[in-house]
Amino acid sequence: MKRRDFIRKTAGASLVAGVSPFVMASNTNLLISDELRFFSGGKLKRFGDGRDWFFEKRFGMFIHWGLYAIPGWHEQHQWRGRIEREEYIKLADLWNPVRFDPERWLDILEETGMKYICITTKHHDGFCLWDTKYTAFNTMNTPYGKDIIGMLADACHKRDIPLSLYYSIADWNHENYPNKGLAHQLPPQPQDSPDWDKYLEFLKNQVRELCTNYGEIHGFWWDINRTGYHDTSINDMVRQLQPKAVINNRGFDDGDFGTPERDYQADDSLAFDRPTEACQSVGIESWGYRENEDFYTDRHLFRSIDRYMVRDANYLLNVGPMADGTIPAESLEILKRTGKWYSAVKESLEDVNPASSLTSNRNVMLSSRDNTLYVHINKELPGNVVKLKPVNVAPVRATLLNDGRNIEFVVRFSPSDHLEQKAYLNLINLPVNELCNTVPVIKLEFDRPLSEIVQPVSPQDGNSGWVFG
What's the pTM? Predict the structure, then answer.
């Protein structure tokens, strides 16, 4: 039997068993191929203090909740719908979320696989969900009369779930905020007295309340600094009062982490150069509860979550509770399906390193841990194969994390590789049509460090043992 025929016959038998015979046996020291950008194994630099919880609890729940839930409006409807302030503030007389149960919210959070929560303490409309002394436009002066933030903080502390607080710099209710009719601002109001210094003092007093009256908090999430005002002392105050709190980059300085939102920012980088927390809502149009909302597909959300977390970024997935305090049924079903997918693949997203530089295939992204490589199929594949060029060493096993089935693989020279004249690892016969509405993740376990899964051997070498296409 010719050597080439023997190799093909052996390859067929091995693939049935899910094991590839095409691993080069060599006792010589491995050379480093120039074409491979070896993965260094390094994560983003940590803060080195109490803020490092951020790198451990990577998946969080975002909550947008306020008066806008009562009529089921978009959370910015006061501005977008040109609603007069005098009419909008009447909603406070109807605020009575009698079914609000922070424990239930946290149950849903944990069932989805989330590890922390961020809530809007004050959105652009200026309505405050806590017992603040600095404006009467708050939850205490409503039929409900209870401190929402205090109730949620108590539940989080009891269950050791980090709490992050969102705060809008823009304020459509405060007389001193300089509304000028810009994006996310009301037109100038005749009854107002715009004064940035006075408003900034109000803001600082509220931030001090939030960072003082609710025990330990783990994050401060600014939004809408339309003025462009820069003042590092405000975040310094937050850090002094709450040393474990990570601060985002939408406030008065660059903060601790970046905040890409929805799909607004095109980003095809292989990894981030600073801590990052992406945010997305289950609803296409709104972050708060909106009647007749349109919703993203599971596939879109899973791909978004995977695309960021595989690069060592955090992810906040938002839902908007209804006026009574409950999570809408459709949002809840989306979270349940998200939790089922996340539970199956989370080992590829938590405590891993970004490793997409190990392949030139941009239809997939990679993460790694020790001798294990995870292949994330978070884009549309053109076919039922993934070629991990320039990787040319077969794994010990390949497993589809979504359902635990074995995946076939082979190191082979394909016609499309004729210019390089090299063989590469291929994951073949993938169930892409069956899994077209989710994000498949394939676990590859190697018998060597990942720095050794590219070897400088071509198909033309006499002892290579490669199969030709």
Answer: 0.89
Contact 380, 323 (CB under 8 A): no
Distance of alpha carbon 206 from its chain centroid, rounded?
A: 28
Q: 114-141 pLDDT, tens per residue?
A: 999 999 999 999 999 999 999 999 999 9
Residue-wise pLDDT for 170-180, tens only, equals 999 999 999 99
CA-based end-to-end distance of the chain: 19
Q: pLDDT tens digits for 351-396?
A: 999 999 999 999 999 999 999 999 999 999 999 999 999 999 999 9
Q: Which tokens hold the place of 200?
A: 């900034």
- Amino acid at residue number 320: G
Q: Which domains does the chain have, with CATH numbers?
A: 3-41+355-468 (2.60.40), 50-348 (3.20.20.80)
Encode 427-443: b = buried (16+ Cβ within 10 Å), e = exposed: bbebebeebeebbbbbb
- Are 70 and 95 within 8 A, CB to CB? yes
Residue 13 amino acid letter:
A
- If DSSP states are collapsed to H, E and C, what string results for the chain? CCHHHHHHHHHHHHHHHCCCCCCCCCCCCCCCCCCCCCCCCCCCCCCCCHHHHHHCCCEEEEECCCHHHCCCCCCCHHHHCCCCHHHHHHHHHHCCCCCCCHHHHHHHHHHHCCCEEEEEEECCCCCECCCCCCCCCEHHHCCCCCCHHHHHHHHHHHHCCCEEEEEECCCCCCCCCCCCCCCCCCCCCCCCCCCHHHHHHHHHHHHHHHHHCCCCCCEEEEECCCCCCCCHHHHHHHHHHCCCCEEECCCCCCCCEECCECCCCCCCCCCCCCCEEEEEECECCCCCCCCCCCECCHHHHHHHHHHHHCCCCEEEEEECCCCCCCCCHHHHHHHHHHHHHHHHHHHHCCCCEECHHHCCCCCCEEEEECCEEEEECCCCCCCCCEECCCCCCCCCEEEECCCCCECEEEEEECHHHCCCCCCEEEEECCCCCCCCCCCCEEEEECCCCHHHCCCCCCCCCCCCCCEEC
Closest CA to 71 of 52, 94, 105, 55: 94
Which CA distances in Å does 28 have to 53, 309, 462?
Answer: 43, 38, 16
